[in-house]
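Quick start: read one record
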Amino acid sequence: MSEETKNEEVVVAQAEDNKEASDKSSKKKAPRKAGGARAPKADAPLVELEERVVAINRVAKVVKGGRRFSFAALIVAGDKKGRIGFGLGKAKEVPDAIRKASNEAKAKMIRVPVEKGTIPHDVIGEFDAGKILLKPAAPGTGIKAAGACRSILELAGIENVLTKSLRGNNPHNVVRATFKALRMLRSTNEVARARGIDLKSVRVK
């Protein structure tokens, strides 16, 4: 084999290698632009949450140069379909405090059993100085509650319920006492499963 033939074969081999390398690089995904948000999937369900501001407190801290003010916001968020949550946010400005509280409320959602538009049974929630009584009500009664407790029940999707504040009126204690009561609720299916009996045998007072 002559030297010219060997050189031609080397050139052809290099050309094939360069072609394969270019094909591999073209198959690579184009880099995503910096700061660009990834598009949501079409099948992903979008949950719409309604938020309500329960209380906003202004806190003053006395320092050497004077007083520094900050704000604390208490937010309740729910989808009116049995999911509810609350959050507390603190910041130097009110919008930032509300945003922090909203993020915390969305991250700490709980499921509330709602049967025929009301709660399954009586329950009492107690937290610190707050104490709340919740009782199921007949259709058409509406929500007999006020303040923070009413906002929570409305956003949870409860349509008929009777409530009574047995102790305390601090909104933070009322909210936590109401959530403690909602966490204690058990649906009829859960009671029947725990007792090992038929669902029709469960008697609801």
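Helices lie at 3-27, 94-107, 147-156, 171-183, 188-195.
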